[in-house]
């Protein structure tokens, strides 16, 4: 599955804000809280295989595109608390 193809996968996207880095310097940090420099290093050296690597690539792409507000949108949906302006459309 390509990275771009994962953006339409709600289950995978919901994991972005709850998955923690399982190893290394930033062990136990949420993937969304990983510093961009750290993600840039993985981008050059190679992301881990499997779902962790997919999630890290997505976080990297989102941070590179200065779209970190998407993380908050995912958190809001997970909480089930949509802001009033969304309900009043």
What are its keywords?
89 residues
Q: What does the model show?
A:
- By secondary structure, the chain is an all-alpha fold.
- 56% of the residues lie in helices and 0% in strands.
- Helix 3 packs across helix 4 (50-64).
- The radius of gyration is 14 Å and the shape is globular.
- The mean pLDDT is 84.
Tally the helices: what do you get?
Answer: 6
State the share of residues found in helices, binned by percent: 55-70%
Largest sheet: none
Distance between the termini: 35 Å
Number of domains: 1
Oligomer: single chain
Order of helices and strands: HHHHHH
Gross morphology is: globular
- Please state roughly what percent of the residues sit in beta strands, choosing from under 5%, 5-15%, 15-25%, 25-35%, 35-45% or over 45%: under 5%
Q: Are there runs of 5+ residues with pLDDT below 50, and where?
A: none
Number of strands: 0
Structural class from helices and strands? mainly alpha
User: From the alpha-carbon coordinates, what is the Rg to the nearest angstrom?
Assistant: 14 Å
Task: Let me know the average pLDDT.
Answer: 84
Short structural description:
This protein has 89 residues and is mostly helical.
Topology:
Elements: H1 3-6, H2 10-15, H3 36-45, H4 50-64, H5 69-79, H6 84-87
